[in-house]
Amino acid sequence: MSSLYGEVIARNIRAARSRVDINQETLAGRMRALGYSAWLRQTVANVEKGRRRVTAEEVLGLALALETAMPDLMRPAAQDGDVVLPGGRLLAGVSVERLAGGGVNDRGLTWPPDGRPGSAA
After folding, report:
1. Where do the structural domains in the chain lie, given as residue ranges?
2. Whole-number Å distance between alpha carbons of 68 and 74
3. In the CATH hierarchy, which top-level class contains the domain 2-74?
4. Which of 30, 42, 57, 116 gets the highest tally of CB atoms within 10 A of its CB?
5. Which tens digits make up the pLDDT trace of 7-48?
6. In whole angstroms, what is the distance from residue 96 CA to residue 62 CA?
7. Coil, helix or strand for 48?
8. What angle do CA 87, 93, 115 make, to 5 degrees?
9. CA distance 38 to 35
């Protein structure tokens, strides 16, 4: 099984919101209180459905608003399997876990001299 990385993040945001037991409007209000003025209930809905990507800056705000840690919003769950990058390349879920959760690049993706990524051996 594999999951688009955007879906992983969307699912993690939805789950975090559920854990703190707030609705989409409340999350949007918390984001606005942090200075993310464009965040409305519809923004939250679009993010949670994977229709809108979040920026790194917004991940910081979401972690604060959802009373969680940034890695909890960014790392895949075991059931997500491999992660599909926007260009279609697969990256092992464990590699994404190490990057997002532990800050370790295990070289699950390599960059040969021709500049096109390859898989690690």
Report:
1. 2-74, 80-119
2. 11
3. mainly alpha
4. 30
5. 999 999 999 999 999 999 999 999 999 999 999 999 999 999
6. 20
7. helix
8. 40
9. 9
